[in-house]
Design a protein that fits this description.
Elements (H helix, E strand, L loop, with lengths): L7 E5 L7 H15 L3 E5 L9 H25 L22 H5 L2 E4 L9 H9 L4 E4 L37 H16 L3 E5 L2 H8 L10 E4 L32 E5 L10 H13 L5 E5 L4 H12 L3 E6 L3 H10 L2 E4 L8 H8 L4 E4 L4 H4 L6 E4 L8 H19 L4 H10 L6 H22 L1
Parallel strand pairs: 1-2, 1-3, 3-4, 4-5, 5-6, 7-8, 7-10, 8-9, 10-11, 11-12
Helix pairs in contact: 4-5, 7-8, 7-12
Length: 446
Amino acid sequence: MSDYNPLRLVLLTSSQDSGGAAIACMRQARCLADAGHRVTVLSPESWWASGPRGVMARWVFTLWKHLVYRANQFFFWKKGAMFSANPWPAGDPARMRHPALIEADAIILHWINHGFLGSKDLEVLADLGKPLLWHMHDQWAFTGGCHYSGACSAFERGCGSCPQLRQSGPKDISSLQFQSRHHWASQLGQRLALVAPSQWLADTAEKSGVVCGTGALIRCIPNPFDLVVDGYQIPPRLTANPALNTQDGVMPRVFFAAVNPSDPRKGWELLMLALEHLGREGLLCHIEVAGKVSKDARRRIQALEARGHRVTCLSLLGPRAMQEAYARADLFVIPSLQENYPNTILESFAAGTPVVGFAAGGIANMVVEGQNGALAAPVDLGSSTSSKTIAGVNLASAIGRVLGHPRPDELRYGAYQSLESVHPDCVSKAYTDLIHSMLNYLSASA
C-alpha cells in the first residue's frame, strides 16, 4: 500500500453495531487493519472490562442514553429535529487514560453522541498531544448541536436562536456549544482534521465558524466498501442482459430503506407524491419498504395500493436480507433532503442496482445522471406545499428515466463500477498519508 511503517490507531464510536455510522466505522477499522495498521475500536461495547462491573456499566450507560434521548425529544427538540447537546459535560476523563489511547499514534473519532464522550473527554483527548481526526457522519462536529442544518446557515457565524429547539435565543445551548467547539478546535489547530466522506460535507465544513481561523484541516475521504468482505459477489444481472420489469404486465420493483421512514429529512412524503404521480401517468410499481413504518405512513401506503401500486413492508432487515432486496430491485430510491454519504447507495451499487434521489448533500456526489442512476432537483424541508409537489413530480421523472432507460445493462454496470473510488486500498492510503503528514507537522514544530 505504502512505504510507511504501521501505525497504532484508535477509533472511538458510541456503537459498533447499531446504525449507519457504526457500519461505516467498522468498515474503516477493517480497512485500516488490512493495510497493516494496529487498530483498536473503543466503544461502550468494548471500553468497560468484562465481568459483573463491566456488564453493569454498559447496562447503566444504555439505559441512561435512551432516557436522555427521549427526554430531549419531549422537552427540548422541535418535532422532526435532530440535535445533540450532550448532557454529560463532565464525562469521565479517567477513561482517556486507556492504554490504547496512551500508546496510539493517532485517534479517530466517529459518532460519539448520546453521552459516549463529553466536552471534558474531548479536552483530555486534545491534551494527549496526538493527531486527532474526526470522521464526520453529519454536520454535528462543526455546528452548535444540529446534525443537519437544513436551510439554516447560522453555523457559519456563531449559532444561537436555533430553529430546532423549542426554547431558543441568542445565548441558547447551540450558541454555547458553538463557542466551546471553536475554542477546542483553536487549541488543536493543525493537530485536528475534520474528514468528510462527501465533498458536500467538506465544502459545508469549510464555511463553519467553528473551524474558520483555527488551522484545523478539512479533507474529503470516502467511507470504504469491500465487496468481498461484506459478502457481495458479482451480481448475476451483470453477467446477462435482462430487461427491466416494465413489460408483459410485470411491475417494476422499487426499493426504499430507512430506519425511520417518517423522519421528514428522509423524504417519505416526497416519495409518496412521486409514486402518486407515476400512478396517474400509468406507471405502476411494486415498492418494497424496509424500516419502521408508522401508522400515518401505512395510511399513505393504503392510498397508493388503492391506485394500483403494490407495496410490501419488510420492517427492519439484516445485512443478508438487505442484499437480497437490493438485488430484486430495478432501482433503489433515496428521496432524502439532506444526507452525508449514505451506506445504502454503496450497497445498492454493490448489487448492480441504479439509484434515484435528489441532488442534495452527498447524494449528488455519488449518483451521476445516466451513468449509475438519476437525480432530481432538490427542495428544502421548509418548502411550500406547491414546491414539494413539484419536487415529487421531479422525483417521479427521475424514476421514469431509469425505468425507461434504453440500455439498463449500462446503468447496472455503471452502478457496480462506481465502487472503484471507495476501494479499501484507496481509502486506507488516503488516511495513512493524512496521518503521516500530521505526524510530520508535529515533529517539525516540536
